[in-house]
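FW: tagging you since you asked about this chain on Friday. Here's the raw sequence from the shared folder, copied in full. Didn't touch anything.
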Amino acid sequence: MLKNYLKIALRTLTRQKLYAAINVLSLAIGLACCALILLYVRHETTADGFHDRADRIFRVYRVEQRTDGTTKRSAGVPTPLGPALAADLPGVERAVRLRRGSAQVHRPGDGAVFSETVLFSDPGFFALFSFPLAAGQTAPDPLAAGQQVVLSEAMARKYFGAEDAVGQPLTVRLGETPQDFTVAGVAAAPPANSSITFDVLVPFAQWPGYAEQAERWTAFNAATYLLLQPDADAGAVGARLAGLVPHYFAEAIAEAQERGWWRSSEDAFQLRLQALPDVHFATGFTNMVAATRDPEGLYLLGGIALVVLLLACVNAMTLAAGRAGRRAQEIGVRKTMGAHRMQLARQFWGEALLLSVFALALGLVLAEALLPLFSELAGTRLAFHFGDVPFLLGLGAVVLVSSLIAGSYPALVLSAFRPADVLKGEVRFRRGLTVTRALVVFQFVVSIGMIAGTLVMYDQLDYLTSKNLGFAGEEVIVLDLNARQTDEDPLLARLHQRLAGHPDVVAVSGASYAFGDGWARMTLNQDGRQHIAYRTRVEPSYLETLGMDLVAGRNLSAELETDREHAVLINETMARELGWDDPVGQTLPEHDDVEIVGVVADYHFQSLHNRIAPVFLHLSPSLDAYTVALVRVRTEKVAETLAFLRETWSAVAPGQPFAYEFLDQRLDALYAAEVRWSRIVQTAALFAILIACLGLFGLATLSVGRRTKEIGIRKILGASVPALALLLSRDFAALVGLAFVLACPLAYLAVDRWLDGFAYHTAPTAGAFLLAGALALAVALITVSYQAVRAALADPVDSLRYE
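HL: got it, structure written out here
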């Protein structure tokens, strides 16, 4: 029976090559999208699964119930917690503390000093996690000796080239004094879905703040991971952990409640365990060292894949409904010969499955070709592994479901025809025509919605990059000062000396943070109310360099000794939050020795996702505390000025890399995720409209075939070619018009929700939706015009002879 079904299916597809090709190509596009997104979903949902003991690894995190009604979750816990839990908490086999930091690194005897991100870790890092070493040994523990480090393969190549890095000396400046370390190992590159990565791994005891924080329970500055014993129950360990909170944190809880930070209740502060596989999607946390992904991105990608695949399946249903009349006689004859409805349904579903199998082969070829582009859009490294059984099962399920959907109309509707009615010609196909029109409308609703979404996204991205941010960004160059000379003369001082008086350098200022960085925050308590303010150290030339306005008071002054530690500038938002109409001369809440000397106009130091927050600016005791230099240049000779800056850098910091970027480019990078999603939706819209047009082309062919004699008669009676082309196209134009009416409110709701993620955003305009509708209509008319014009130009004699 199966062999017979296969023969009939192959014969049917061979006789109807055009429709088979349209269906295969449509399904191939849909299955290619599904294969790529299944690969990405598999990649993300197996994050950190490469660790041998992943099911026994847990992260400790804290939960704070704030007095303002909010709940804070953070992986930052006190430094002494890790050793205490290893000693006091039953069921814990090992505890490892982690913390990120920065350091200046160079090879002894080499003048080039580089700023690197380092990861501080306790000994036992390689016993808890399964990061393999490409060189060196994990036993004895490479972090047990205080003056040993482990490098990533990329860092080993950077500092030692083709040489064996193990055993080589490396100078690392973690605090005020450079220290000599020995490379104990080179770690192989971890999988792209690892939540923990590192370039330079340093013993935790080498963290500059370790001596001060080692026994301090009121500062939350380290992440702690636990390896539970093989027979330990995670729920029981978590319950015992909660019971230890009063013992460890009585002082911290009392201080926070006294200051009005936490609620005065037993649950004001909690410690909980989080399984390692859950860390990757822990977006509501302050994650310390772990890289996370927003799970909503997976849902959005999955939705896009299903929509594109559904459009492809709709094509098969549409063409099946359009060809219902041609297959009705086949169904009548087969039923007369004794075929049951279920046998016919299996036959139709078998044809759809055969189409899906052909489409899968073509789709995998397309997916492999598109994989580099998709990896770039997804922001990670992806590769097909056809030995991955869950991935193959998922792909098989997609093929099966697509076959069931694609073959549903003929299997459920056509198979129900009564043979006597079919053979007598009494079957009416109005229902099939209605279904066909509804499916076409559905396809163009989706296509128009995606096009409109792409246009609104483009408008928002343009708004983000062109909005007046309250400072000059295009003319400002950011120089990284983390790479310092080994002498005591601050690099910033040497830059000031060299750049002073240059005609194309307008101003220079040091700062602790460039825009977009994680600025330091401070909690200020005022009459029982909490205010979270951002702060940064700046030079007095900061306002001039950034072209910012001082709206009240005076600027900070390096000439006034008291300004070093007792004066600040605040922004307008902070003045409003503190309730001051004239804040100049006031003191900061809880800091009576710090006077507000001026107010600067509000400016966007964060991305436009966030509303402008309270900010205060203050001086640094010394120039070597600034980590970036902001250089404002004239725009007329940017290339020449950059060359001068490079030359100056070589003179003041010989051998060190000249790392720079324009401030506006740095700010544009804050919207990389939005740019990526815009491109993904744009690509999906392209696929959607392509699939819809393939189906439209097939329907136009069917329509012309059904009306061939009518066209011949109309031509004989004097109808012109344009009139006939319009006659054949207007029905499809009407369907696109109906789709536009339905798509607009749905698309508006979707993009309005997306725009809500920005504190500052543009409003969806009618122009975007009208342009989306016009584009869809133009593409649809171009698609059907070929068949319409071809039919209109045909010889009417041949048309009248058409059977």
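FW: DSSP finds 27 helices and 22 strands in the chain.
HL: agreed, and The first helix runs from residue 2 to 15.
FW: great, closing this out.
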